[in-house]
Amino acid sequence: MADRHSYKSKYTADRSIPGAFEGETVTRRRFMTGSANLAGVVAVGAFTLPALAFAIGPIFKSTPHTWETVGPVGTFPENNYIPVVITTTPGIGEAGKTSVYVRKFNPAIDTDPYDRNTPFIALSTRCAHLGCPVRWVEAAQRFICPCHGGVYDLLGRRVGGPPVRALDRFYTRVVNGYVQIGPRFSVNSELRRFSPRDPAEPLDGIGQYLYPSRPGAQKL
Amino acid sequence: MPKLPAPPVPSALKAPPARPGESDGKTGALEDAKTAGITVVDWVDERTSLSGATRWILFRKVPKGTNWFYTLGSATLFAFLSQAVTGVFLAMYYRPDPAGGAYESIRHVTNEVFLGQFVRGMHKWGSSVMVVLVFLHMGRTFLWGAYKYPRELNWVIGVVLLVLTMVMAFTGYLLPFDQRAYWATIVGVNINGTGPLLGPYISDFLLGGSEFGATTLSRFYAIHMLLIPGLLVALIGAHLYLVTKLGTTAPPWLKADRPPELSEAEV
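^ Those are the sequences you sent over. The predicted structure of the assembly is below.
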């Protein structure tokens, strides 16, 4: 230690700090200041971190998969859509419900290789532009969105207007002769399945990486 | 404790001295009432020194050419105070319950509470008034060049205030919870989600989950009532302090007179 520069030594005695004694590295003043600051940080963290977790926590909460019965198998034809109402978020009344257009799977129409061989096709009414509810117009065989003029065809693919991808779909199954609607999923223009995304998030090409699915939405 | 000399009062406010030979006129009930009032104010002032601060705020020097455009900032402040007061009264009746209580409480305020429609209307139109005034004030500050040294920090605080005002307008819009409020919020949150990478997470934060859920309305209410007003009051205080400390600028078409030695002399 003989050659060490006095200001670089870790011993206060070498740094000629007044009041230093043999072997001291941290002065008593510095220790007190540091521990008071540490106590302050702990105290602030004790109320800030839970509050932050409370505010940001819901982003990571995932809702359980539920299935809702919407009608007997015979109600839904093969070439037209019947609207039904399901509850996506319980406990908040009308704001938690959404409409679904249901149709029986038609091998003549649903020919996409990515289209799963599901018993029924259930399209969401949530427009993929900004979330307004779309309406099925049978005479035009199109879904029309009243807000900004988005248009989708029979399979829910976008054919006009500002939407960035096709209409979302719901899983379906048949239990005891009744059709049940399950969790939501999103599709891209080739009707390939993705975990549910918000409106205005494209899924073609780079879109699925630019707008990743979130921890709260079910990974499907 | 020795009594300090009274701080200077602007000459316009000083009482004119009595003419020689005439009585002072300082007798009678009115003078007694004035003396009583002054005694009370003196009592507070001796313990707080508030009169100095009040003079500093109110009796400021302003440059030549100050015109009506300079009132836009105070007008915005007044609109904010109006929103705060009407908002407090609306909060006494509002119920942040998405299963129907919110809509019902606003219906009750509008239809059945005495002057409820008036107070609700003032709050609703006041928000538009405030946004318009904020933009006019911002435009005036920009066109007058009043953002330059040493007022840059004030401009930055003003921009943050603008953003906070927009957040107030957005969160407040959902609270009546009618069809327009609900769908406008859905659309607004989805526009938010179009930001790449972080957009969806911010929408989730606003909604309190991946879907519009039970806590979304309460979240918007807490942001609208507690979080942003607190930030607004703090930043408006900072904004006003800086304006008072730095002073206002003259309009840009008024040039200061240059000393004759500095101008190019005609030789």
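Chain B has a mean pLDDT of 89. Chain B has nine helices and no strands.

Shout if you want it in another format.
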